[in-house]
Amino acid sequence: MINNSNNKAVVILSGGMDSTLSSYIAKNSGYELIAVHFNYGQRTENRELIAFRDICKKLNVLNKYEIDIPFFAQIGASALTDKSIDVPVDGLEKGIIPVTYVPFRNGIFLSIASAIAEKENANAIYIGVVQEDSSGYPDCTNSFISSIQNAINEGTKDNTNIKIITPLVNLSKAQIVQEAIKLNVPLELTWSCYKEEESACGVCDSCRLRLNGFKEANQKDPIPYKES
Fold it and tell me: What is the top EC class of this enzyme, as a single word (predicted)?
């Protein structure tokens, strides 16, 4: 374990499985956590906020931010923020960026998290992006993270030095499930569904990826589903 007892990390925590595991990895690396959650007009905004608060309790996070970003709904162009666009349920098409992509969402999240990190004197930001087994979003890649890290450090104070840490970026969903179980992550508190807030739909891209990860890891997903 890295000794980061005097260091702080901002963790971008949606309440999903990936961001929750990423936050647990940050804590196990010795960082004092500052949790940041974004309400951006997504369909499952209320359920994700519940997950965020529940997970913060489990992690004993005292310093947390709940940030409202209303303009994503105004921009639209994504099935997550524009209810006139149906959330796809037919599975992912290779090489095609799905309509659930929210334009430059992670870039905006990381920019806000960087402002918080600078204020809090944090030297790391953890984000649970996944490149290999994701929906093909362009803001989840190693190259994007590297580029925005450079831009953030170029655009902040000289004594600010922020490292963006992506512990899951090259993992498959099955490996994420296995690592989460190994670290006793409370997966029953997490929420990944793009469509529903009571029982996960089981058919949207996010549910399919999650369920397939559990299946490949020979584990049972502890959250309720309408269909699986």
Answer: ligase
222 found inside a domain: no
- The domain of 129 spans 8-190
Place of tokens 């037919």: 90
CATH of the domain at 13: 3.40.50.620
Is 56 among the annotated ligand-binding positions?
no
Q: Does 193 count as an annotated binding residue?
A: yes
Alpha helices in the chain (DSSP H): 17-28, 45-59, 71-75, 105-120, 142-154, 173-182, 205-216
Residues with Cβ within 8 Å of residue 100, at least 6 apart in sequence = 78, 79, 80, 87, 88, 135, 194, 204, 205, 206
Instruction: Check the annotation: does 140 bind a ligand.
Output: no
In a domain, 226, yes or no: no
Domain count, the chain: 1
Own/partner long-range contacts of 155-159 (Cβ < 8 Å, ≥24 apart)? 156/114, 156/118, 157/118
Asked whether residue 197 is assigned to any structural domain, the reply reads no
Average predicted confidence (pLDDT) for the chain: 94
pLDDT tens profile 154-209: 999 999 999 999 999 999 999 999 999 999 999 999 999 999 999 999 999 999 99
Query: Does the annotation list 16 as a binding residue?
Result: yes
Asked whether residue 201 is marked as a ligand-binding residue, the answer is yes
pLDDT tens-digit map of 55-76: 999 999 999 999 999 999 999 9
For 68, phi then psi, to 5°, come to -95, 130
Residue 14 domain flag: yes
User: Buried b / exposed e across 103-127, counting CB within 10 Å, b at 16+?
Assistant: eebbebbbebbbebbbeeebbbbbb
